[in-house]
Each structure stands twice: as C-alpha cells, then as structure tokens.
C-alpha cells in the first residue's frame, strides 16, 4: 500500500512540472489580461485602470474631468422624460426616504448594517446612492463599488435594472461579473458580482486595492460564501481604514452582524406592504371543494421522493407534527386518511398532495379570483419542470391565451429571466413557478397570489455519518413570512400555505446557516489558497463556527484525496483544485481526464453529476424507464450509461431529433442541454488551469472495457467506495463506515445479478432508513489500488497478481513511462508475496 503514496507523488510531480511551465502558478487565473472590449469572459475584470502612461497630476486632471462628465450625463438623464419618470419611481421606494441618513452613517462608520423588507430598494438603490454621492462630489471617477449577490441570476438582473434606472447600457458606469460571464467597461464604477467572484479576487489582491466600498447583500440567507467573506473582510478592515463595508439584510435579525463587527450601526428601512391574508391547508379545504387523495392512492411521481424533517426541528416536534397533521386532516373531513403507523405518516409526502392541490388552486384562482400574478414556491428545478409539464396539459392553465406560465430558478438563462418581469397582456394571468430564489432576491412586482409548498431544497450535512444530502426540508417561519409578503407588493394579497397551521407553528424560527449544515471541503481549500492560516483557527472566527468534527472531517477528506498534505498545506493537486470552482471530486476527475487525454466522456460525467438526474423514472412507467436506462448499460456503470445516453442524444440532435430521443429513452432533454452547456463551462475553466493545450484531448477516450475512464471516475470518487461480495444468486455491498448498503433502485448495477468487479465507487450515499448508493461504477483492484488510494481489506493478496498486466493496458506510452517505476515495484511486491 505504500505504493499508492508513490502514485500520488508521481501525479503530483507531473502536475508540478506542468505548473512550472507557467510564470506564476497561483496567479495563473488572473494573469491573462483581457481585451478592451466591454464583454469579458472571465477574469481580468478586476484589473486596475491603466493610467500608466500619464503622470499622477495629469491623471488626476483626467479623472476629475471624467467625474464632471459623469455628473453631467446623469443630470441630463434625470431631466429627460423617461429619466424623470424613473426618478419618480425610485423616489417612491422606502429606501429613497432614508437616502441622506444612510449616506451620512456610511460616511462616519466603516461598517454599516442595513435591513429592510424585500422590495424596499436595498439592492437597486443603496449602491446607487453611494455612486451618486461620489459622482456629485466629483470623486465619481475614482470610486469603485462592489456589491455581491449570492446568485448569478440576481447579480445579472439587478445590474440590468440599475443600468436602466440610470439611463445607461450595461457596462457603462454599472457592470456585472459572474463566473464565465461579465459586462464591464473602463468607466464601470459599480460592479454587481457573485460572492464567489469577490472571493476569487481576494486570492490575488488581498487588500482589494482601489475598491472604495464593498456591499454584501442578502446576508440574512447566511450562505457559506457570505459567512466566509465576512471573516476575510473583518480581517481586512484594519488594513484598509478608508474602505467602507455595507451589509444588507431582508430580515430584522441584524444584531448578530452588528455585534460581530464591534457594534456597527444598524439602519432599518421601514417598509410598506399591503396586508396579505394567510390560508392554511385546513382553510383551503374548507373554502374549496377540493378533496385530498388518500395516501395509498397517490400516484403522483413524487411519491417516491423521500420526505425528511428539517434538521433543526427537534425530534419531539416530529411526532408532534405527525399527530397534528393527522388531526388537521381528519378535521378537514379527510376520512380515508389512515396511516398505519406514525412512521408511515412521516413518509407522507406533502409534495404529492401539493402537486394536485397546486393545479387545483391555480385553476380555482384563474376562474374565481381578481386579476393579479400568481407566484408558486416549489422545492427545486425538477419539481418545477414536472409541474410545468402537468400544467401545460391542463385545459385552462395550459392555454397560452389565458395563462402566461413561467419558471424561475437559479440555473435559468438570462434571456429566460427577463420574461419574469414582463407584463402579460390583458386577460392573461401570469403564473410563475419558482424556487426560493423569489423569496428575497428577486422581486416580481405584480404578484397578488402566493402558493407556498412549505419546503425548500436544502443541503444538509450529517457530520457524524459524514454524509451530505440535498433534500427538500421544511422552511423556517421567517421564510414562510417572506413568501407570504410577496403577495402584498401592489395591493392586498392572498397566500395559500399548502400545509396545516400546526405544521407552520412547528417550523423553526430561522434557517440554520449553510456553514453549519454542509460539507466544508471546498471552503477549506479556499482558506488554504487564500493563505489564511490554520483552517480550524480561521473557521473559529466565523459568525457561527461549524462543529469541530465537521471541520476535521473536511480536512481529513482533503488529505485522503491528496489535496492537502500531512501538515495541512495545499498540494499541487490542491492548488489545481482551487482553480476549479466545483466539488473537489469533480475537479479531480477533470484534471485526470485532461492529463490522460480522455476528456470528453469525463466532461459528460462531471457535468452529469452537476445537474438533475437525466434519467427520468415516472412512477407509473418505472419498468419501461429502467429498461430504457439498461440499454445504455454495458459497463456496470451508471456514469458510463450516462455517457452513452448523452452521446446518443448528441447524434440525435444533429438530425434535430434530440427531443424524440429523450422522450423514447426517458431522458430529460433539459438535463441534456444543461450538460452540454456545462461541458463548455468546465472546459474553459480547465483550459485556464493550463493542464492541456486544447488539442489532442480525447485519443484515449474509448478503450476496451473502459478501464481508463473507470480509473478516472475512481480517482474522483475515492473514498466513496464499497466492496462487492458475491453469494450464489446475487451480491451484497458493504462500505467501511456503514456496513451493508443498498443500491438506489434505478442504478444499472441494481439490475445485475453479478458484477465482475470487486469494487463499486459511488458518487453519493443517502441515508434514509438504510444507506443507499446513487450512481456507481464498478472498478477492478488495480484501478482502485492505483487511483483510489489505500484501503484496508483482508484478501488483497489474491487480487494482486492481476495488477502487472493491467497497467500497460490502459496507459498511453507517455504516461506508462511515468508508471514504469511503479510497475517494477509491483512486480517486486508480487514476487515477495
Ligand atoms: O433589494 P430589495 O429587495 O430591497 O429591493 P430591490 O431589489 O432594490 O427592488 C426595489 C424595487 O425595484 C422593487 O420593488 C421593484 O419594484 C423594482 N425592481 C424592478 O422593477 N425590476 C427589477 N429587475 C428589480 C427591481
Ligand atoms: Mg435585494
């Protein structure tokens, strides 16, 4: 097993040699300068202006003159007809009334915290106030304001909005920058970017040179990146006394932030919303003639989905909810609802009932209610797209002359995004199916009705089992109130909560911050690449520090996969991984895929693991769907089945038959398209690492029984590994940590009675009652030994013999050479044994 270390060392050396061909390794991402055009693909956006050719006195004059120009431009716009109207709108927002107060507090304090209800004008107005006051004081040409958003879609939509409020095009004084996309010009003084982008800038510019204001928006969401950024900024403030930090929150619990920043002043913007009437499930059943379907008759596809209590609700609440849900449903004359046990009630999936109920309520609103848009909060993209399909088949809701049906989620394209804000024609009702993104970061003005399913997808992480899961869980009270508030923007509204009042009462007050409920691996890598010292010491300074065990697990994982060395320093592999903003395991696959010239299938796999499962399993056609998936399976691998399915789709797309192909094969066309675009994104990220030259990247892509791809998958997914033990009729699976485990029913390996390999590597395990593995690939001993790292298993001896021959088999000459030494070691080892 000592050999494995050597393999690692070899790969490390190889990467290191590669990296030395660059002038400055860690600055690689940022060293290329961009062209002067205002559309910039990736980095380069943060380069300093280029005043080099002038003396500072001349420069000052130029900037001063530019400042005056900016001021004149703005004045001219505000005097124009459209400009006046826009200004009037802006002045009607609650934030505008606080303008002077906000500006004076910012002037006098380094850190300011501003809270105010969603839609009161924080995001669009406050950065503008600062910009305007700088321009008025003719310092406008030198100020540089960065406003971070947790999601790319809000960064883009907000920057567009602000530019249009200023009568400009994007890329003039207002710009945006998200990963792989951006719009910024020489005059851009206000930049909206994702939090991740600012963190990447800190990588090369620790003092944020030239930046005058940093605004961190939506801090109430307590995203991991935001919490992380706050620690870094807190350290930065003493080094940059003139830098201003403004934190913005949509909820009132801002004292926490204030005390974190040594009692920074709080400003609250009093809001205005019209009253919204809340209807809970029992009221809905009372006022409509809708009847819930008994549990055992629900044939919605969603039935299989696991239903999980929100982590933060204590155990006793669970049973409390269980009994009260039951009571509520009984009270609602729901006679047939007879859960066998408490357990089966906790498996009761409100989403299922939600699906039919949502359809019913939407048609009820369309037929009986006054005009006004409807906003439907659902758990995720997959739910939204299924719901959309269901609604499109409905006689009223699917009729475009009566309903404008739109969707809103984090991964939608910016063109799609603009549709949400558009006004429908008269007599047409706008219905927007959305994730919790519309809860606080996107405001749709004309909403009068809100449907709230009560859940949101949340990553949670169980440090004890070291198992991450992304499951719908109950939202918090604050979220439910936010959702309700969306209905009262323009007139009194109605909110339909699709769960009983008693469930709401059991919601926790706030959601747990992300840093406390997700794996910390990427975060730890970032801490290391920003040279912020000891990981656990750094994280102990967070607003709320994660459990020590979670931190240790993450560090341990990074050591096992070779991203950190024994002393917690970044290895060369670790450096490369920090350049790839994705889970380390996916980054590892891409890196090895590039090195071993086997890129296309690996790109497909990595992209496939980043989108919703492309293999659909409608409940009523489960057998057909499983059979369709099996056609793609020849390799005892879900990952390779995906590659084959995707390649088939690409072929079909050439004849414009992609959609039919997906329909026939139970594939999601949306996921296929998403994979295609992600592949491009990943490829360009990978090019930036300099690991390959962009040409001969695939000559190893397909080989006999796919050993090379298996090796790459194994390299990424290790230590997600389980052993296959055959008995007479079938096989059983075991992992080191969990003991016996099961395969997810739609895995191709679940259909096999024998797997001619001793190991499975898997992407994800989910704990329900037993532990289930999702997406697995069978690998041989040699692959596991060389690419997986060491694993203690009793009967390795018998398998060692086969190793020698294999090596030559899947190595290209150039790489095989590097493994010659290892090969000799193997031979020696086998002889010794
Ligand atoms: O950040 P906050 O939730 O406080 O509000 P905002 O995003 O600054 O939006 C203020 C107002 O601008 C909203 O209430 C909308 O009326 C309007 N707005 C818009 O019409 N179109 C956008 N893309 C963004 C905002
Ligand atoms: Mg906002």
From TrEMBL:
Keyword Metal-binding: no
EC number in record: 3.6.4.13
Record carries keyword ATP-binding: yes
Keywords noted in UniProt: ATP-binding, Helicase, Hydrolase, Nucleotide-binding, RNA-binding
Catalytic activity: ATP + H2O = ADP + phosphate + H(+)
Transmembrane segments: none
Superkingdom classification of source: Eukaryota
Domain Helicase C-terminal: start-end pairs: 357-531
Molecular function as annotated in GO: ATP binding; hydrolase activity; RNA binding; RNA helicase activity
Helicase ATP-binding domain: residues covered: 103-270
GO CC, one annotated term: nucleus
Family: Belongs to the DExH box helicase family.
Official protein name in the record: RNA helicase
Gene it is expressed from: LOC110426258
């Amino acid at each position: 097993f000592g050999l494995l270390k050597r393999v690692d060392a070899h790969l490390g050396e190889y990467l290191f040699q590669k990296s030395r061909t660059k002038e400055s390794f860690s600055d690689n991402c940022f060293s290329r300068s961009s062209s002067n055009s205002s559309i910039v693909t990736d980095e380069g956006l943060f380069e300093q202006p280029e005043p080099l050719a002038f003396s500072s006195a001349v420069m000052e004059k130029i900037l001063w003159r530019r400042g005056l120009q900016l001021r004149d431009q703005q004045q001219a716009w505000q005097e124009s007809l459209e400009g006046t109207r826009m200004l009037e709108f802006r002045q009607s927002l609650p934030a505008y009334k606080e303008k002077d107060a906000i500006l004076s507090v910012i002037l006098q304090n380094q850190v300011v915290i501003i809270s105010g209800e969603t839609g009161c004008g924080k995001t669009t107005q406050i950065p503008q106030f600062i910009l305007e006051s700088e321009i008025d004081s003719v310092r406008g040409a030198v100020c540089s304001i960065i406003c971070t958003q947790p999601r790319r879609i809000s960064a883009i939509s907000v920057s567009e909005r602000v530019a249009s409020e200023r009568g400009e095009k994007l890329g003039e004084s207002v710009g945006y920058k998200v990963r792989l996309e951006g719009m910024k010009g020489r005059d851009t003084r206000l930049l909206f970017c994702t939090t991740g982008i600012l963190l990447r800038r800190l990588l090369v510019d620790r003092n944020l040179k030239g930046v005058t204001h940093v605004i961190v928006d939506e801090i109430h969401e307590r995203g991991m990146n935001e919490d992380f950024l706050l620690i870094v900024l807190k350290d930065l403030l003493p080094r940059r006394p003139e830098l201003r930090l403004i934190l913005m929150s949509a909820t009132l619990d801002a004292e926490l932030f204030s005390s974190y920043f040594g009692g920074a002043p709080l400003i609250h913007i009093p809001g205005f919303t019209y009253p919204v009437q809340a209807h809970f499930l029992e009221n809905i059943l009372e006022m409509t003639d809708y009847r819930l379907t008994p549990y055992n008759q629900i044939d919605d596809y969603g039935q299989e989905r696991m239903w999980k209590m929100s982590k933060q609700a204590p155990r006793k609440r669970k049973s409390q909810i269980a009994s009260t849900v039951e009571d509520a449903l009984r009270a609602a004359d729901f006679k047939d609802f007879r859960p066998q046990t408490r357990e089966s009630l906790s498996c009761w999936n409100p989403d299922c009932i939600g699906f039919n109920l949502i359809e019913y309520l939407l048609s009820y609103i369309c037929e009986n209610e006054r005009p006004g848009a409807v906003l439907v909060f659902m758990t995720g993209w997959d739910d939204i797209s299924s719901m959309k399909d269901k609604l499109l088949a409905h006689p009223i809701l699917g009729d475009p002359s009566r309903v404008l049906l739109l969707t809103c989620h984090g991964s939608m394209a910016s063109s799609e995004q603009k549709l949400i804000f558009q006004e429908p024609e008269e007599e047409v009702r706008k219905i927007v199916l959305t994730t919790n993104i519309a809860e606080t970061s996107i405001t749709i003005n004309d909403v009068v009705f809100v449907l709230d399913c009560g859940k949101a997808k949340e990553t949670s992480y169980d440090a004890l089992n070291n198992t991450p899961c992304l499951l719908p869980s109950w939202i918090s009270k604050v979220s439910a109130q936010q959702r309700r508030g969306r209905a009262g923007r323009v007139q009194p509204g109605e909110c339909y909560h699709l769960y009983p009042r008693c469930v709401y009462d059991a919601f926790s007050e706030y959601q747990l911050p992300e840093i406390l409920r997700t794996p910390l691996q990427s975060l730890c890598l970032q801490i290391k690449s920003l040279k912020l010292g000891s990981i656990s010491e750094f994280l102990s300074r967070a607003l709320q520090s994660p459990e020590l065990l979670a931190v240790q697990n993450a560090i341990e994982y990074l050591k096992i996969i070779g991203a950190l060395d024994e002393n917690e320093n970044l290895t060369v592999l670790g450096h490369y991984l920090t350049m790839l903003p994705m889970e380390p395991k996916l980054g590892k696959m891409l890196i090895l895929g590039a090195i071993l010239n086997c890129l296309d299938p690996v790109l497909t796999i990595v992209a496939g693991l980043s989108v919703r499962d492309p293999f659909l399993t409608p409940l009523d056609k489960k057998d057909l769907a499983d059979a369709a998936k099996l056609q793609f399976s020849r390799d005892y691998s879900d990952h390779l089945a995906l590659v084959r399915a995707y390649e088939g789709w690409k072929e079909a797309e050439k004849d414009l038959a992609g959609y039919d192909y997906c329909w026939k094969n139970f594939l999601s066309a949306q996921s296929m398209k998403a994979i295609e675009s992600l592949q491009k994104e990943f490829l360009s990220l990978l090019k930036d690492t300099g690991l390959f030259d962009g040409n001969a990247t695939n000559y190893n892509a397909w080989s006999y029984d796919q050993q090379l791809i298996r090796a790459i998958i194994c390299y990424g997914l290790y230590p997600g590994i389980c052993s296959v033990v055959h008995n007479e009729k079938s096989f059983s699976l075991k992992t080191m940590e969990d003991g016996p485990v099961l395969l997810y029913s739609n895995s191709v390996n679940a259909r096999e009675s024998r797997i001619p390999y001793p190991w499975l590597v898997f992407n994800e395990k989910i704990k329900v009652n037993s532990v289930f593995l999702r997406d697995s690939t069978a690998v041989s001993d040699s692959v596991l030994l060389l690419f997986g790292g060491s694993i203690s298993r009793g009967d390795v001896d018998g398998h060692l013999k086969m190793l020698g021959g294999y090596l030559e088999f899947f190595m290209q000459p150039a790489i095989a050479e590097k493994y010659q030494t290892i090969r000799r070691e193997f031979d020696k080892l086998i002889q010794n044994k």
